[in-house]
Amino acid sequence: MDDPLNDLEALRAHAAARLSAHRHTTLPDTPGIRRAAVALCVVGHGGAPSVIVIKRAYRGRNAGQWALPGGRLEAGETPLQAALRELHEEIGLTAAPDAVLGRLDDFPAASNFTITPLVVAVRDPGPLTPSAEEVHSVHHVPLHRLAAPDAVRWVPQPDGGQLLQMHLGPRMVVHAPTGALLWQFREVVLLGRTARVADFLQPEWTHR
Length: 208
Known about the structure:
The N and C termini lie far apart (45 Å). Strands 1, 2, 3, 4, 5, 6, 7 and 8 form an eight-stranded mixed β-sheet that branches. This protein has a three-stranded antiparallel β-sheet with strand order 9-10-11, covered by helices on one side. The chain has helices at residues 8-21, 79-91, 143-146, 178-190; strands spanning 34-45, 48-56, 66-67, 70-72, 100-103, 107-109, 113-122, 135-142, 152-156, 162-169, 172-174. By secondary structure, the protein is α+β, with helices and mostly antiparallel strands. The model has no long low-confidence stretch (mean pLDDT 95). The longest helix is centred in the first third of the chain and has 14 residues, at 8-21.
């Protein structure tokens, strides 16, 4: 059997099956909480499946933070529509609805957004054209790196609890919310484990 960490077609079948079995959590609408959607997008890169992570432009909301392509829902949009629209607007990648393999849990971000993550796998993404207004840089994280034991670190906090750090590359340390979504993808899709993320600690600088 082909290895889903090293073969995009195997990953598509593998992810679709595990996401279908995952009973994702959908958070209800709450006054004052806005909705957003992100695309956890896997493409072939350097001969192996990789997930696209962006660094936001050094301006506006979430300046310079690690993120997945995505943003708030426009009036009348579904999370799926918003995730695919933002994927195109932010990095120039067009994905058809049949590229969507499933979804993970809604995440209650401390910035007063409920984030819905859609898992997408695109066979031929073509050249990416990131928006200079929104994206500083685009990065490809190989799935074998995301699944590596040393990718996950839990840092004890002075007031109790542990802060997740995803160490995904040189000078690439990703915290919740984005780190939580990548961690759940790793656990559910890549490692076949049950995992929830709604109670993950979020650094103070992500609350804005």
